[in-house]
Every structure is written in structure tokens, then in C-alpha cells.
Amino acid sequence: MADYDENCTHDCGSCGSDCPSRGEPVDLKKNMHDGCSVKKVIGVVSGKGGVGKSMVTALSAIVANRNGLKTGILDADITGPSIPKMFGVHKKAEATGMGLFPVETRSEIELMSLNLLTENETDPVVWRGPVIAGAVTQFWTDVIWGDLDVMFIDMPPGTGDVPLTIFQSIPVDGIIIVTSPQELVSMIVEKAMNMAKLMNIPILGLVENMSYLTCPDCGRKIEVFGPSTVDEIAKKYDLKVIEKLPIDPKLAALSDAGRIEFNDSTGMESIMDVLADIGLEF
């Protein structure tokens, strides 16, 4: 069997290497743990950090769970995991000779994150890219997820080793790109889009986070970070705008307290339309 460069994008048209199987389709997808299955996998990505990618991941999972879907979150943001804290999950993941077991939130959303494996939640992760990418792959192959309807993958920002590994090794059905209103974001979004297209991953739509702040006195929408740009970006690239999420101090407080599941309205209700669009029955 031929050896393949782990950094291969399988786009032979842009590659000068004399690969033994050049032009032949190569399937590097990994299997889940024996006896486990997931109907749909959605990656939540951003071109830069600090735009609320983990928040969108958590809210999407909460909506899917509330609608009766068996839901899981794979926290692939190894160096900055925040999903367990948002859900108030501090219990460590258990392991047996069979594999790792995800930890359930109060509403039975299944989670796997590096924070559930380290001795202290604040321990820094000082690993090189390939090691981090390998850990994410193991979250897919070695965790006993059971049978899920949908899994959301909270991706690290950017277009480095980990997103590349996920797109190569996990059967992602599509990605949601999270943006913010700043003008600079359009260029960063384009980088994420180009990577997805290069890897033949469908782009399911855009979510603009921190789009506005609703004045508690008069109800007027205040564009704290400037006018929204998401509609222009979506039109330019023929993409769907899934949601425009406001700055919500209540939601931030619940996240800090580990009680995000107790939010009355998540703002990500349109995720159910996205799931229906990719063929998930519920």
C-alpha cells in the first residue's frame, strides 16, 4: 500500500508531487468506534478567533436536543476548549479497555473535550500541530459515542493542521461559518470558504454573531461593531445566512455560570432548517 503525505489535500491539479497513486481517489476517512454511528456531522468554523464559534456550536446542539435529536459535541478546539465550562461539565471522561466514554450534560447532550481528560481544566496544552490533530482524530475513533442523530464539531479557528485533519479523516456533511460584523471579516471568511471548497466540504451557511445589541430601554438595535456585512458576503458567494445573533448579556452570564442549557431562547432555531436541508429526518 502506498504511503501518503498527511498534508495531502487530494487536489492533484495544484500539486507537483509524483505520488504513486496520483489522480486516484484516496479515502482517508476514519471509522467511529465499533457499534457507534452518527447520521450527520456538522463542523462549526471561523477564520479567526473571538467571533463566538463555540457559542454557536453550543446553541445549535441545544436546539437539536430540544427537538428530540440525540446530539453530541466534539470539542476540537484543543488549545482553547470552552464547551465543558459553558455546560457546567467538570466530571472527567471515563475510560475502559473498550475506549473513552463521553460525558453527558444535564439535558443529555454528549460531550468530548480535552478539558474532560486533563487533571486540571487550566492546564495548558503545549503540543505541536500533528499531536493536536491526532488527539482530535482519536475523539472520533476511540470515543464510544453510541448512536447519534447529529454531531457538532467545534473547530479551532483558522485553516491549519486540525481543520485539515478533520476534513480528511471525519465524514463532515457540511460546515457553518461564524462571522462578526467587522469589514475585515469578509477576507477571513473567504479563507475558510476556500479551504472547505478545496476539501469538497459543503458550506451550509453563515452565522453572524454579535450582530447587534438590543437597547433594554427602547428596544432599538445598536450595531456595536458597525453595520452588518453578512448579507453582502452571502450574496457575493451565494451562501445562506442562517442567523444574525445579538450580543446577549444574559446568555453570556449563563455561559460563565455553566448554565447555557437554561437559556429560554437560543437564537439558533434555524439550525433545524439546516439539518432538514442536509437530509436529517426528525
Helix/strand layout:
Blueprint: E1 37-45, H1 53-66, E2 71-75, H2 83-87, E3 103-104, E4 110-112, H3 129-141, E5 147-154, H4 161-169, E6 174-179, H5 185-198, E7 203-208, E8 213-214, E9 221-222, H6 230-237, E10 241-244, H7 249-256, H8 271-277
Helix pairs in contact: 3-4
**Strands of the largest sheet, in order across it?**
3-4-2-5-1-6-7-10
Number of E-state strands: 10
CATH topology: Rossmann fold
SS element count, helices: 8
- Give the count of structural domains: 1
Provide the low-confidence segments as ranges: 20-25
Structural class: alpha/beta
- Helices and strands, in N-to-C order? EHEHEEHEHEHEEEHEHH
Instruction: Provide the gyration radius in Å.
Output: 19 Å
> Main beta sheet: strand number and arrangement?
8 strands, mixed
CATH architecture: 3-Layer(aba) Sandwich
Terminal CA distance: 41 Å
In summary, what is this structure?
The chain has helices at 53-66, 83-87, 129-141, 161-169, 185-198, 230-237, 249-256, 271-277, and strands at 37-45, 71-75, 103-104, 110-112, 147-154, 174-179, 203-208, 213-214, 221-222, 241-244. The protein has 282 residues and is α/β, with parallel strands linked by helices. The chain has a single domain (30-277), classed as P-loop containing nucleotide triphosphate hydrolases (Rossmann fold, 3-Layer(aba) Sandwich).
Task: Outline the structure in words.
With about 280 residues, this protein is of the alpha/beta class. It has a single domain (about 30-275), classed as 3-Layer(aba) Sandwich (Rossmann fold). The chain contains 8 helices and 10 strands. The strands form 2 sheets. The protein has an 8-stranded mixed beta sheet, with helices on both faces. A two-stranded antiparallel ribbon has the order 8-9. Strand 8 and strand 9 form a beta hairpin. The N and C termini lie far apart (about 40 Å).
